[in-house]
Automatic annotation (TrEMBL):
PANTHER family: SUCCINATE--HYDROXYMETHYLGLUTARATE COA-TRANSFERASE (PTHR48207:SF3). GO terms for molecular function: succinate-hydroxymethylglutarate CoA-transferase activity. The keyword Transferase applies. GO terms for cellular component: mitochondrion. Keywords: Transferase. The gene is C7ORF10. This is Chromosome 7 open reading frame 10. InterPro entries: CoA-transferase_III_domain, CoA-Trfase_fam_III, CoA-Trfase_III_dom_1_sf. Belongs to the CoA-transferase III family.
Length: 334
């Protein structure tokens, strides 16, 4: 989807009939369309192909020959069974758990861009192994390093930080605020804003290492103080302090924030069956160009005939034959 945001032609290959599993994930639904599916499938075309049909597998082989990138998420070895695999010496790694799907997509986006640059330099394509397990482990960051270098097992900290104090969410009179004092100077500024300068004179809070060791007492004092004012009042007090702070917002508050709309983070479009839909937009803005407006997520097989005719140059007779043999399917919803 990110590559589609940047202008790439993205062809989503789905099985005829059911299509992508996420089309059924709900509620909520808009008409018969899953909001989950709509949120992650803009700027894509849908090609409905039966990969178990010999003609269907042949179509994907041809399509792979004219496309720059083939992305698949089958279990290891599954594509090889359909003669669609990539010859490679390394053993693939089985994907991990679903919570890392977004991170894996982001890693894959960067990897695809790097692979295209490598092909430009060498003239050779390559296979990218970007799996959920590797993404999960890579994203463990300093938590992994703590174990690998100090044998320190991870604990659950809620919104708090294992190695920095105060660096967490605090309850206020009407909500929550996150305060991230990443150094001793910022801790002093927090105490100034909270009018608790006596804490800066306490030897046990003088350095971050000492604050981590004595977090329970310090956080109790800070928590009691934050409860005395509203979130908006605290945000005003911290303005210009140099301390990173922010509210913990509800989803309604997030999309009421003017900066969110200014950054193009709400994308609205007209879907062929669901009507008007809105989804979160891309996170990146460019100084010298703006990507074209989004196209709505497709219905199953919406672009089958278009891809076969325009991308693979199939004749109308061949397309008709493929449709009649049920090797492919074209949406009848439009």
């Amino acid at each position: 989807m990110i590559l589609g945001d940047l202008g790439a032609e993205v062809i989503k290959v789905e099985r005829p009939g059911g299509g992508d599993d996420t089309r059924t994930w709900g509620p909520p639904f808009i008409g018969s369309e899953s909001v989950y599916f709509l949120s992650v499938n803009r700027n894509k075309k849908s090609l409905a192909v039966d990969l178990k049909h010999p003609r269907g597998a042949a179509i994907i082989q041809e399509l792979a020959g004219v496309c720059d990138v083939l992305v698949e998420n089958f279990l290891p070895g599954k594509l090889d069974q359909m003669s669609l695999g990539f010859e490679d010496d390394g053993e693939p790694v089985r994907p991990g758990v679903a919570m890392t799907d977004l991170a894996t997509g982001l890693y894959a986006h960067g990897a695809i861009m790097a692979a295209l640059l490598q092909r430009l330099k060498t003239g050779r394509g390559l296979h990218i192994d970007c799996n959920l397990l590797s993404s999960q482990v890579s994203c463990l960051s300093h938590i992994a390093a703590n174990y690998l270098n100090a044998g320190q097992e991870a604990r659950r900290w809620g919104t708090a930080h294992e190695s920095i104090v105060p660096y967490q969410g605090f309850r206020t009179k009407d909500g929550h605020i996150v305060v991230a004092a990443g150094n001793d100077r910022q801790f002093v500024r927090v105490c100034q804003v909270l009018e608790l300068m006596e804490l800066t004179e306490e030897p046990k809070y003088r350095t971050n290492r000492l604050r981590v060791q004595n977090r329970r007492q310090l956080l109790h004092v800070l928590s009691q103080r934050f409860l005395q004012e509203n979130t908006a009042d605290w945000l005003k007090r911290f303005r210009g302090s140099g301390v990173p702070v922010g509210p913990i917002s509800s989803i309604q508050e997030v999309f009421s924030e003017p900066q969110v709309r200014h950054n193009g983070l709400i994308q609205e479009m007209d879907h062929p069956t669901a009507g008007h839909v809105a989804v979160p937009g891309p996170a990146v803005l460019f100084s010298s160009f703006s990507p074209a407006g989004p196209t709505p997520p497709p219905v199953i097989g919406q672009h089958t005939v278009q891809v076969l005719r325009d991308t693979l140059s199939y004749s109308d007779d061949i397309i008709k034959e493929l449709l009649e043999s049920k090797a492919v399917a074209q949406s009848e919803a439009l």
